[in-house]
Write a structure and sequence with these properties.
The chain is α+β, with helices and mostly antiparallel strands. It folds into 2 domains: 51 residues, no CATH class; 113 residues, Jelly Rolls. The chain is built from 3 helices and 9 strands. It has a 5-stranded antiparallel β-sheet, with no helix packed on it. Strands 1-8-3-6 form a 4-stranded antiparallel β-sheet, with no helix packed on it.
């Protein structure tokens, strides 16, 4: 009977030929993946051919050459606090005894005026509250010590707020510490120009009295608020 497609039955692809074609195609894809793609994309080179062709260097070069995208979720236009780093001991063979490192701000700063000293007595009735603040410039330092001379406990919030309010969020402030202890001593380097000091509230049922001593560089030490809770 005549073949309507005018083709010979023996010249078409049978199932055996199709299987062979699929096998060689798959084998070729595996070879390309193992020899070329894995070394260049993942740095894995099981045959060693990729390293000889320089393919294993492509991934590391791309990582170095392209900077990481910015994390928009953590981007913050507000000014950062003053930070510093303590000096690390250099290797012995690199240290020059006659020419040491110069360690400046914020660890060392010269001032045109002498440091101030102040001692305040703060009396508080039951549920009375007060704010005592040192007006300081960024980077200036002070040491302080305070204690209850009458009473056993008082609520304290040691904190600060900036003068340049246009550079910070509305009503921005930071907290250094919070406690209900009868005394505290410490030091402070101002992270910004502003008010740095203490909020005390008498949480006892009787009057209390606090003695505060401050030494350091600041413009003034003032009582900014007093009221009853």
């Amino acid at each position: 009977m005549a073949n309507p497609d005018n083709t010979s039955p023996g010249k078409g692809l049978n199932s055996g030929n199709l299987f062979k074609a699929a096998f060689w195609t798959l084998l070729g894809a595996v070879v390309v993946t193992v020899v070329f793609i894995m070394p260049s994309e993942y740095g894995v080179d099981p045959t060693g051919v990729g390293s000889k062709l320089g393919l294993t260097d492509l991934d590391s070069e791309e990582a170095v050459g392209e900077p990481a995208p910015a994390n928009l979720a953590t981007a913050d236009p507000a000014p950062r606090l003053v930070t510093g780093e303590f000096p690390k001991p250099p290797p012995a063979e690199e240290f020059d005894y006659y020419d040491p490192e110069v360690l400046g701000d914020p660890f060392s700063r010269l001032h045109s005026s002498e440091f101030r000293t102040a001692t305040l007595e703060i009396a508080l009735d039951e549920l009375e509250q007060v704010e005592i603040k040192a007006l300081m410039k960024q980077g200036d330092a002070l040491v302080y010590s305070w204690k209850l001379v009458e009473g056993k406990t008082v609520y304290t919030d040691f904190h600060a707020d900036p003068h340049q309010t246009d550079l910070y969020p509305e009503r921005y402030w930071i907290r250094y510490s919070e406690s209900e202890e009868p005394s505290a001593s410490g030091s402070l380097v101002a992270p910004f120009d502003g008010n740095h000091g203490w909020y005390w509230m008498n949480i006892e049922e009787n009057p209390v009295k606090i003695v505060l001593e401050v030494r350091g560089y600041y413009d003034s030490l003032e009582e900014l608020m007093r009221s009853y809770q």
